[in-house]
Design goal:
By secondary structure, this protein is α/β, with parallel strands linked by helices. Helices cover 31% and strands 29% of the residues. The protein has six helices and twelve strands. The strands form two sheets. Strands 1, 2, 6, 7, 8, 9, 10, 11 and 12 form a nine-stranded mixed sheet that branches. Strands 4-3-5 form a three-stranded mixed sheet, with helices on one face. The radius of gyration is 19 Å and the shape is globular.
């Protein structure tokens, strides 16, 4: 079986709304292609080996970036998990957005790698749970290259350190996705050298009594973000069995 091709883009430091709009545009373009292809198939046109089928094929993307300080609230999130007023956010130069992803409140900021896969899951498998577990696996095997042991907690999406030790669990990577016509957007936020004090103003992911951490905190020194991005790309290819192209 041929590997799927995935277009890789590093957007660098980009404001959250611009990145969200960019993702939304890619997702909607793919949705329109799928709608057009379905229409042709319903007209009993054999597109399986035709030029039309190639033209109407969706494109997969893997996007990495960083954001200026911003709090984002998922569609199922609760405002009471935001412990800071809008006026205080303005004073501290922090933006705030209610989003259409899953999950609750989280923080994005400099020195945190945010990953946005725009993936047509019908080219892989139609299973959101499996998709999230595989995204977690990309992070877990990347952390392992720094001798950081990441793990999962049942019922809570994301990657944790000391996941099985009550009272010591700390989240190092948050996740929240949206899926439309089996096309994904949003994704993960991996704390690399992130200023963790920003998390003091929220109840991260709406989970009480659990801390957050970063790669820097776990290894006690700054981590090369460019190197982490390279490892994430390689491990994304490995876990999802794809080839990243520019």
């Amino acid at each position: 079986m041929d590997k799927q091709l995935v277009t890789f883009k590093d957007l660098g430091l980009i404001d959250y709304k611009s990145a969200w709009d960019y993702q939304e545009g890619l997702l909607q373009a793919n949705v329109q292609l799928k709608t057009a292809l379905a229409k042709k198939l319903n007209q009993n046109l054999d597109s399986s080996n035709s030029e039309d089928s190639n033209i109407l094929s969706t494109t997969n993307y893997f996007i990495l970036c960083e954001h200026p300080p911003v709090y984002t609230l998922g569609k199922s999130g609760h405002l009471q998990n935001v412990l800071i007023s809008e006026a205080e956010m303005d004073q501290k130069g922090i933006q705030f957005f209610k989003t259409n992803r899953g999950g609750d409140i989280t923080f994005h900021g400099p020195n945190q790698i945010v990953g946005y896969p725009i993936i047509d899951l019908e080219k892989f498998y139609t299973d959101i749970g499996r998709y999230l577990r595989e995204l977690e696996e990309v992070i877990i095997i990347t952390l392992a290259e720094y001798n950081i042991v990441g793990g999962r907690i049942n019922g809570e999406t994301g990657v944790w350190i000391d996941a099985g030790i009550a009272g010591k669990e700390r989240k190092i990577c948050a996740m929240g996705v949206r899926c439309s016509r089996w096309i994904t957007m949003h994704g993960f936020a991996l704390n690399v050298n992130t200023d963790l004090s920003y998390f003091d103003n929220i109840i991260p992911c709406g989970i009480q009594n659990k801390k957050v951490t970063s790669m820097e905190s776990e290894v006690n020194h700054l981590v090369d973000i460019s190197e982490v991005k390279e490892k994430l790309q390689r491990n994304f290819e490995k876990v999802f069995n794809v080839i990243l192209i520019q």
